[in-house]
Specification:
75% of the residues lie in helices and 0% in strands. It is mostly helical. It has a domain of 121 residues. The longest helix is centred in the N-terminal third of the chain and has 37 residues. It is rod-shaped and about 115 Å long. It starts with a helix and ends with a helix.
């Protein structure tokens, strides 16, 4: 029996095939696990709209809770305080919604654009709040202390959904559940399983 016949005989042996596959697995470079690609732009926009609607709903719930639990009792007990708290609501609500709209619009754009429409627009929001405060405090019968406390309270409760929304959108969508894919098994392992059968 020459070498050719010996190799042909050994090629039909299951253990010899497993030995060859093991040698090929040692020689071949290890394959890196497959990384899930980032979602397409349309999917990113849908995700941004979904997050924006969710936190807009949170702002609406906080607004309704503040009116029912704080402003209405104050209005019933002491109307000047209730009016002051109610008039402190619009500027803080506009600031919160403008911040969230800026985050929604610029979260997948350039970093400088994102900072410009969020932190960079803070002076404009501050000017709006000061102008509104000057207008309200010029009205007779409005308590200065209650108005300032109302501004602080509404700013505090509306800051929570603002920064929570920005944090959620800043997370890498590649690690979100809807982009997770199963890792492909290495070819050497699959061939070895075929050889065992």
């Amino acid at each position: 029996m020459d070498n050719r016949e010996l190799l042909r005989t050994l090629s039909g042996c299951r253990f010899y095939r497993q030995y060859l596959e093991a040698q090929q697995a040692k020689v071949s470079p290890p394959q890196e696990p497959a990384i899930a690609p980032s979602p397409p732009p349309q999917q990113k926009r849908r995700r941004a709209r979904r997050v924006y609607r969710k936190y807009s709903t949170v702002v609406g719930i906080l607004l309704a809770a503040g009116v029912v639990l704080i402003i209405t009792p104050l209005w019933l007990v002491h109307p000047p305080y209730g009016k002051a708290f109610l008039l402190s609501l619009p500027p803080m609500l506009i600031c919160a919604l403008s911040w969230m709209a800026g985050v929604w619009w610029a979260w997948d754009k350039d970093r400088f654009i994102f900072l410009a429409v969020t932190i960079g627009a803070t002076p404009a929001r501050l000017f709006l709040g000061l102008a509104w405060a000057w207008l309200v405090l010029s009205i007779p019968g409005i308590s200065d202390r209650a108005f300032v406390l109302g501004l602080m309270w509404h700013w505090l409760i509306f800051t929570i959904p603002e920064f929570t929304m920005a944090y959620e959108l800043s997370q890498n969508p590649r690690f979100r559940p809807y982009t997770t894919t199963a890792l492909a098994s290495p070819p050497a392992a699959s061939e070895a399983n075929d050889g065992m059968s």
